[in-house]
Amino acid sequence: MTLEHFMKQAISPWMQEGGPDNDIVLSSRIRLARNCADTPFPIIAGENSLEKICHIFQQSYEHQTFQNYEDFEFILINDLTPIERWVLVEKHLISPHLAKKVQNAAALISKNEQVSVMINEEDHIRIQLYFPGLQLAKALKKAFDLDDWIEEKVDYAFDETKGYLTSCPTNVGTGMRASVMMHLPALTVTKQLNRMIPAINQLGHVVRGIYGEGSEAQGNIFQISNQITLGKSEEDIVEDLQSVVQQLIEYERKARNRIIEQSNKSLEDRIYRSYGILEYSRIIESKEAATCLSNVRLGIDLGLIKNVSRNILNELMVLTQPGFLQHYAKKALTANERDVLRASLIRERLQLEKK
């Protein structure tokens, strides 16, 4: 397996599987932050220390299989072109922060792209595990298994009182971020989500954009995650987040029903106009494409559009991002060239779906 394996398809294999509440919840993720004991953390470490961490992971885990996660590929970030880095960011296999690293940063990615381990990002080790739909408890159990597997060969920095030690104080304790990616078009259009966010924050959770901290929400897709990592067990954190997410699912479904009851023709018009734009546009910017894709996905979920699958929409959300477009074109593109290619790829993909 090579880097090209991760570049070929916009949609990761695990995303093609169904999951609970997948009309609203796109994915569940558990991320564990860990550091090696007796080694300076990445924010102050010298290059020799960071190189040693990379060497441990390449020697111990490259091409290994753990449970049903096969053939982990070790990828040095410095060996990637800028476009290749951003493709991995757009697929959520690495973070934007890791993509900007110059020396001794790496990723260990399973063949099915369900697991990625970021090496020498903000912490020495960041384990990420994804599941489709709302499956936080299952993701947590698998993340614990992976954590134990890595700890067999790595001595973690751990304090009996504080828990796992991390570069950022907000991660100390469990070192865990649990997050759920949600499609919330009805709550967004009715402006209910803006009123809910302060209450969500007060419960110890945060609402972010599609690429996490500091990113913008695109296509009415939001990431809901825990803020508190100290003073609670991982299971309690996941249980609390699960409760918030289930309430949001309920509110989103109620909002969708109200829109249908109160302005059905207006809703249908917006959905079919969006479908028409995607099917016939010759130039389309990323923000407009994301909005139209969101509207069409809502139409699929409501049963108004029957000839397009959710997976196609998931695929196009990634395929039409700047990094993937330039990888597809095999060259750097201007903003206008990306807008032209984006429209062309969307038209082509929708036509294939009809055949």
Automatic annotation (TrEMBL):
Annotated residues for binding of ATP: 27-31, 92, 126, 177-181, 208-213
Protein name: Protein-arginine kinase
InterPro entries noted in UniProt: Arg_Kinase, ATP-guanido_PTrfase, ATP-guanido_PTrfase_AS, ATP-guanido_PTrfase_cat, Gln_synth/guanido_kin_cat_dom
Assigned protein family: Belongs to the ATP:guanido phosphotransferase family.
Stretches assigned to the Phosphagen kinase C-terminal domain: 24-255
This protein's UniProt keywords: Allosteric enzyme, ATP-binding, Kinase, Nucleotide-binding, Transferase
Regulation of its function: Appears to be allosterically activated by the binding of pArg-containing polypeptides to the pArg-binding pocket localized in the C-terminal domain of McsB.
Motif placement: RDXXRA motif of the pArg binding pocket involved in allosteric regulation: 338-343
E.C. numbers: 2.7.14.1
GO molecular function: protein arginine kinase activity
Role: Catalyzes the specific phosphorylation of arginine residues in a large number of proteins. Is part of the bacterial stress response system. Protein arginine phosphorylation has a physiologically important role and is involved in the regulation of many critical cellular processes, such as protein homeostasis, motility, competence, and stringent and stress responses, by regulating gene expression and protein activity.
Cross-referenced Pfam families: ATP-gua_Ptrans
Catalytic activity: L-arginyl-[protein] + ATP = N(omega)-phospho-L-arginyl-[protein] + ADP + H(+)
HAMAP family: Prot_Arg_kinase (MF_00602)
